[in-house]
Amino acid sequence: MSRDRRGPDDASTQEPARDALPAVDTRLLVREEGVRGYLREFGRKLRSGELGSLPVVVAVIVIWTVFGSLNSTFLSAQNLSDLSQQIVGTGMIAVGIVFVLLLGEIDLSVGSVSGLCAALFAVLNVLNGVNEWLALLIAIAGGAAVGLVQGFFFAKVGVPAFVVTLAGNLAWNGLMLQILGSSGTVNIPSESVVSKLYSTIFHSPVAAYLAAAVGVGLLLAASLLDAGRRKAAGVPFRPLGEIVLRTVVIAAIAFTAAYILNLYQGLPLALLIFLILLVILDFVLRRTTYGRQVFAVGGNIEGARRAGISVPFVRMSVFSIAGTMAAVGGVFLAGQIQSASQTSGGGNLLMNVIAAAVIGGTSLFGGRGSVWSALLGALVIGSIQSGMNIMGLSNAIQFMITGAVLLAAVVVDSLSRRSQKAAGRA
What we know:
Helices cover about 75% and strands about 0% of the residues. The chain has helices at about 10-20, 30-45, 55-70, 75-100, 110-125, 130-155, 160-180, 195-200, 205-235, 240-265, 270-285, 290-300, 300-305, 310-335, 350-360, 370-390, 395-420; strands at about 185, 200, 265-270, 340. The strands form two sheets. It has a two-stranded antiparallel ribbon. A two-stranded antiparallel ribbon has the order 2-3. The protein starts with 10 loop residues before the first helix and ends with a helix. Its main location: membrane. It is found in: Cell membrane.
């Protein structure tokens, strides 16, 4: 009675297995196919919705082309140099938002936290005579503590991040007003460390070119070390030709930027500090166990738990990082206007930092993004504002266009995610 049954060794079941080819991930063949492989891989990524930083790079080119054609002042060395300084405060706060978005969450309190920490520094240093470096450290530590408190309620108590940070937005703003007192404004002297961190410029042309050379050199060294490590492990690695090509492209961008900065005054210290922080935090996200845990929790929280990752720790630490970067950004914004007031951290700051992170390419759905998104997004927001100011357009028009750009970025993110799901990549 078992004669008609097909056993596991039956020829009819084994024949397809002998004829079938093993499934190969095309991404593993890229390194062997050279330039053609990379072109195919690029096309595959576009078809599957993995756009990376391409949309925001295109947006920057379009924005600069439009405003440059309307008014030549926009692309002048002075305006671009000023722009590089003006995006620092917003960009630093946006870096913290990137970390939070990688978890698929949101932080609505970063604007108030930035204002609170700026007020804390001003009151301690200017009104109470505390050493300026100590006051600065206390202000930054205060931002980290605020983020940790909010992260505790989110990760341990289970209150949604939206609610926690919305409440924090109100509470920290009230605390800032309480700290500032009846005067409402504390002026920060131009010789203060906060003012100097923002306004200092290295006028020697050597400084900008040296910074570009060091950055390119570190990139080349990191790429070579990574390729050597991957080759030793027997996994696909970037060939030397590609590493050289990528380094040449980055070097061209870096030295062009240095040349433009030198045409006006030189390298702003604020921009240099911002870039150094981006490099450090990018290393943390891409090259450390902690960074991989952040992506894991944002991509699949249940899978992260089963892998032994402490989800509460990751969540609390990420919100603490967001608070820290909000404090740093708030201090730079205070140095920019040389004061801390009741309006610090208010206005459209929260909208701009969230928009910068999202426009820069960090997904609202978590698990995908980069700290460099903060730089690219802040550059888009800053360019729009700078161009409209030069054109003499009102704030109302600026808000509408910025909102439209933000909506477009979210639409691209949503369509990209849908395409990746259809391609089995999300």
